[in-house]
Amino acid sequence: MSIPSLSFKQAFTAQSINYYSFLKEYPSPEKYASSLLKYKIFCCVWAIASIFHMANYNGFTLNLTFFLLTSAAIALMAKPSSIARLLVFISMQMFQASLDMPGISNHWILTAFVNITILHAYVYLIIKRKSFYIDKVEFLNTFAPLVKIELIILYFYAVFHKLNAGFFDTEFSCAVRFILVQNNYYNILPSDKALLALNIYATLIIESIIPIMICIRKTRYWGLLLGLVFHFIIAYNPINGFYDFSSAVFALYFLFTSTTFSHKIQSLYNNFISRKVILKKHLLQFNLVNFALFAVSILFMLFLVYYYNKVFQDYFRHIVWTTYGLGFIIIFMLSMNVKEKNNETKTFSFAHYSLLFIPILVFLNGLCPYLGLKTESSYAMFSNLRTEAGISNHYIIPASAQIFDYQKDIVEIVSTSEYHLQNVAKADKLMTFFQFRRFVRTERPEFVTYKRNGVLKTFELSKATASHELYQKENYLLEKIMFYRYFNRNGVQECSH
């Protein structure tokens, strides 16, 4: 059957047209409507994840791009059925991510990869259908399997990067530091040495089990529940505002859920709206009781605002994240009791091999530390991984596996006029020449004496010429994507991002 041709106006305004109706590719109208609902809810939770990211950085109005991204997220939540609004939103996020590079956070670069995947799927369908009108269910079914693959890749590296001597060292392990800091803040768990060591293995086991259970249809919902609880809890760690990462994972988990979860959300939302209408109608009937209830409610809300503002410094974590996270988990648990017909069997099936390009990039991005490329934004966050200066603390991949020399070109700060570099020297840390050169080129310290691979050199701003080695640049692409952390001289990698 031939695909019907649409005019330019129809392509952007026709709401009732869908290709599945024409091609009879969907088993039933009910199933199609359920998938359409799932697409709309995903757009909402994906936009919410971006809101949590901006809250963590206090970035709602940090600059024009963040303001526009905030506006685009709100606009998408207001009308999640609009593909145009989704495209504007993901375009703004990708643009902001490009501005943040190379010093971009791990979850934000994964978010950018997911958005590129969505855009790639959209372009693929335009070419396939030869029209700008794209059916939303087909759109969801095209990008969702690819995004699921990318989440599994993230979990793979989250575990694989931690297979190193530093992570299993109770003195330096991030798993130990996390539980100590969190317990010092909330004072819930005992700080027993055995418990601290147990957390190292518990972290690895949980992060290993979650993706395995998610990939198996029979254990998927229990794996999702375990992941939701795990990421809900770590979002409270004071080391960072991890609710930005957790909210992104929640949104990506949603793609693994059945339409039963979507219907449960819709059902509860509809019940809330109907009860709100009834309550509003009742309260509009003026009498002393209604007036007293209204006044008491306002005063009680003001008291809660005063109390929480005084008790919690990070209100977004303890109020907004708690409400959103608990609500998400509870609704998900309620949907687990319903047995859905026609369970999804082909979780990772993709429409065309060309669509695997972005998931492959996601995988290669995580491989960078072992290739001798960047060590930041490669999903090695808080893993204690050390691969610089010809030393690898990884149990499986040695430093000799590196095919690029960027991590072997090392700088030691001897003395400097620049405050930040002084702290690097005091901490007895080293840095790659690539990172050092970028820092000097942008910050322009008055002077800095340094050793590059053991050779003593001095940079003086007043005497430096354009041909100085610290003024040279790599090509634009490398400068944009390469970013390195500082590392300890003694070979031990303490807990850091």
From TrEMBL:
It comes from Rufibacter sediminis. Keywords: Membrane, Transmembrane, Transmembrane helix. The chain crosses the membrane at residues 36-54, 66-88, 108-127, 139-160, 194-214, 221-239, 245-262, 283-307, 319-338, 350-373. It comes from the Bacteria. This is HTTM domain-containing protein.
